Amino acid sequence: MTADILTCIHNKMNLLSKGQRKIANYILQSYDKAAFQTASALGKTVQVSESTVVRFASELGYDGYPEMQKAMQEMVLNRLTSVQRIEVSSNRISQEDVLNSVLQTDMDLIRSTGDEINRDAFSGAVEALLNAKRIYILGVRSSSALASFLSYYFNYMFDDVRLITSASDSEVFEQIVRISPQDVLIGISFPRYSSAAIQAMEYGHNAGAQTIALTDCSSSPLAKNADYLLTAKSDMVSLVDSLIAPMSVINALIVAVASRRKTETTATFDKLEEIWDIYHVYEKIDE
């Protein structure tokens, strides 16, 4: 919920019906829960009809409840503590079939990501990577898993890939201090956003490097310093961050780069296959 919504609720409180005032008071006191409830669920919580909830959204100036809900979610996602995530997710996920609920949510996130991601930004990011002298990949906390995965494969394709996973601001800057306009910085962060990632993106952008942000939306603090913004849906309400959609975007980046550097990548893996075979890196299975 933004300050504008809060102000609007306070300014219109005297004009609201009795039922709408119940909604307003509940949102003001428990916006972390209200932001992730359907209109029907919110109505049941405050004991009003679903239509009253919809009219309340319209009274505040939104085209409908989904628009108001989205505005609330964008504000609260970065503020939810781990305890709040547990409480909210318990209300959203079916306890009778947790597995199916989580799998379905992840499928929905991938579908939404595919519908909304900017194809031009993706193509631009690929071109920037192919022309980079050095590639810096930054992801801390839960995003470090994504950064490590991307770095693992990019190290097979590029000569100079540098993985930065430290959450310490000083260590991050020590590792990117020589970044230049010939380089690319990939910053990965999702709510709750890492201050180290935000500051590093700003530093890289100011140094003239091409910057690629992998984050959840255009209002993310990483976006303002990104030359190429890649958005991926991530359900950050639950205790466990869902990184399925971001991982799919990373897979697409790897495949796109590999297809453009097919000759070099093939030569590298031919040599690696020989080394792996000589040193028995992988167990052979007799058929």
Short note summarizing the structure:
The chain has 287 residues and is an alpha/beta fold. The protein has helices spanning 3-12, 18-34, 39-46, 50-59, 65-76, 82-92, 98-116, 119-130, 144-157, 169-176, 195-206, 244-260, 262-278, and strands at 135-139, 161-164, 184-188, 210-215, 228-231.
Description:
The chain contains 13 helices and 5 strands. It has helices at 3-12, 18-34, 39-46, 50-59, 65-76, 82-92, 98-116, 119-130, 144-157, 169-176, 195-206, 244-260, 262-278, and strands at 135-139, 161-164, 184-188, 210-215, 228-231. It has a 5-stranded parallel beta sheet with strand order 2-1-3-4-5, with helices on both faces. α8 (119-130) packs across α12 and α9 runs parallel beside α12. The longest helix is centred in the middle third of the chain and has 19 residues, at 98-116. The chain is elongated and about 75 Å long. The model has no long low-confidence stretch (mean pLDDT 86).
Could you give the topology of this structure?
Blueprint: H1 3-12, H2 18-34, H3 39-46, H4 50-59, H5 65-76, H6 82-92, H7 98-116, H8 119-130, E1 135-139, H9 144-157, E2 161-164, H10 169-176, E3 184-188, H11 195-206, E4 210-215, E5 228-231, H12 244-260, H13 262-278
Helix pairs in contact: 2-4, 3-4, 7-12, 8-12, 9-12, 10-11
